[in-house]
């Protein structure tokens, strides 16, 4: 190696050492979580939580749908977790974001490429004073060319631009993880809600069938009394109209049952109609679970939307560092080794060697305010993310408070409607008996039957609302994702099936 070459490597080595010593300097703000002053509990939760109650609540959050005590619902949830396409799509987005994080991290390492060239070229001879070419003293217009080599480049991350970019990508991965958890929560809430609506609609269909039977009995009774000379044609017409109205009211319920069943199938990743035979058998409405032992404000840490907003703030903070690093010097080490000759035996001779090795440093000087504008934009985006996080926390508090208030307030409402339904059924039975005895007119029978029907439907709706209150509260508390891992996902093409170079370098 010549003296000149040794001096070149010596200077490059000194610059590399200096850059390496500076590599621990990472510019930009360090992320600090936003601390909000929050109450220890909720206004609707009237007592302080004990450690045992907190542990019990945390256990209930993992599989809250079991609290309804319905084995068929449990089976549907398991099938939906395994087959829901939205959940699988969210899982693939996590894989994609992780791959993008690896792309950012690749900038830490030397980028090396191999190349080779073999061919012929011809030059113009109609150019005056064309210089003689080395190895071609006759200045012939044609030449053979053979070359091979390696080119490499290595960026020295002195001021942390790459580190901040990788940090931002890692936070983006975490955001996608929380997004998948949010999709899971939404899916669970929709599935359980649809199941409750299905059972409630089947109950209302059963009530409708009973009322059709009552209306049929009233119609038959009116006709019999008319034949016995007690009634009249007006009463027969009224009884027939009531029977027709009850039969007409039943059809929308059947349609709704079919539509809800189809929605459940889609949530499970199945063709609509797959579970229609399985779910068409009516089952009683599940019981409302007990109110959670306690609801401390810390439970909001379970909510994926809050966790996602916090990770978005962390990512935006890292993006500031990326923008700030653009204003600092950039160091890189390019290397090119390209021997070339006109014959194969000459390619490996010393005279054919051609290489370049530098230590490059660049410093931005004038860009018309572009770099500072990028920093201001990143700072504004980070502040917007922080405020979004705060707004998300407040919205979560409101949703939990609303759900708790609805849970407490609907208890008495449902009990009153239950008593009203029992009283209305009793009044309807007495009115039919009195009408059969000729003591009241048919109008009183119609009035009491319609009142009984309305009361029974109102009770069924109220029971559904009580169940929905429980679903809303568990969802507002961020329950359901804790006991469910990320579904297994595989890329359509694996590195193991690629060529030997892909398996060796995994680039």
From TrEMBL:
It comes from the Bacteria. GO terms for cellular component: plasma membrane. Gene3D superfamilies: Outer membrane efflux proteins (OEP). Residues 1-23 form the signal peptide. Keywords: Coiled coil, Lipoprotein, Membrane, Palmitate, Signal, Transmembrane, Transmembrane beta strand. InterPro entries: MdtP/NodT-like, OMP_efflux. One of its GO terms (molecular function) is efflux transmembrane transporter activity. Residues 450-477 form a coiled coil. It is a lipid-anchor. It is found in: Cell membrane. Belongs to the outer membrane factor (OMF) (TC 1.B.17) family. This is Putative Outer membrane protein. It comes from Gluconacetobacter diazotrophicus (strain ATCC 49037 / DSM 5601 / CCUG 37298 / CIP 103539 / LMG 7603 / PAl5).
